C-alpha cells in the first residue's frame, strides 16, 4: 500500500459540533413550572378540598382493602383477556374458515359495544337466566350469577380479550415469514410453529401494548359499579363520600391510590420490556467487526464488540 493510498484511507478529523441554544424551551419550562406551583399553592389553601379528610382516609383500612380488590380484579381480568385473546388471535389466523368466522364474530361483538354497556348486561344476567335446562337436568345459576366479583372479572376479561387478540395478531404477523418456513422445513406442525417459533419472537412486540392495556384495565375497574360491584377502590370511595357528604377528598384519595398502583405497574413494564428486547441489540460480534474493519480500513467508533460468539469466530 502506497503513502497516497494510506492518506486516502485515513479517517477525517471529527467536527466539533456546537449545540444550538434554545432559550424558548427554558422560558416555556419556567412558565409551566410557575403555573403548576401556583395551582398547588392555591389548592393547598382552598377549604373545598378538605385536606384533613383526605389525610384521614388516605390510609384507611377500607380504602386499602378496596385497593387490593382492585388489583385482584385487574390481574384476573388481564389473565383471562391475555389467554382468551391469544386463542382468538390464533383462531383468526387459522386456515380453517369456520374458526376464522368465530373469532371475527367475537371481535365484532365485544369491540363494537361499550364496556359499560357490557358490564350492565352482566349485572342483569341473573334476572334473565335463573335456571338452565340441558335436557337431562336443570342447572341453578342463582349462586353463580349472584357473585358480583366473578361477574366483574368475566365482564372485564371477555372485553379485554377482544383487544388482546388484535395485539397478539399484530405481534405474530410482525415475525418474518422465513421463520415459519424454516419451522415447516424441520417438520413442525402449524401449532408447533406458533408455540415454539412465532410466539416467543412476537413477545417483544406484544409486551409494550399489553402493559398499556394492563394499566388501562386498572382504571377500567372503576366501571364495575355498573354490575353493581362496589368493593373496588372507586366504589368504596364513593360509598364513604356519600356517608360523609364530602365527595372531593375521597375522589382525591382514590386518585392517589390509582397513581401509586399505576406507577408500580409502569416500573414493572419497563423491566419486562427490557428483558424481552435483549435480542434486538445492535451489538457486533468479532467476525462482523473484522469485516467492517476490512471494508473501512479501521474499526468504526460507533460499534461495540459482543462477547458471545467470540470463540466461534476464531475457528
Automatic annotation (TrEMBL):
Keywords annotated in UniProt: Amino-acid transport, Cell membrane, Membrane, Transmembrane, Transmembrane helix, Transport
Coiled coil: none
Lineage: Bacteria, Bacillati, Actinomycetota, Actinomycetes, Mycobacteriales
One GO CC term, this protein: ATP-binding cassette (ABC) transporter complex
Gene3D superfamilies assigned to the protein according to its UniProt record, in alphabetical order: MetI-like
GO terms classed as biological process: amino acid transport
Membrane topology classification: Multi-pass membrane protein
Localization per record: Cell membrane
Protein name in the entry: ABC transporter permease subunit
Similarity comment: Belongs to the binding-protein-dependent transport system permease family.
Originating organism: Corynebacterium anserum
InterPro entries: AA_ABC_transptr_permease_3TM, ArtM/GltK/GlnP/TcyL/YhdX-like, MetI-like, MetI-like_sf
GO MF annotation list: transmembrane transporter activity
TM regions (residue ranges): 26-44, 64-91, 103-124, 144-163, 251-272
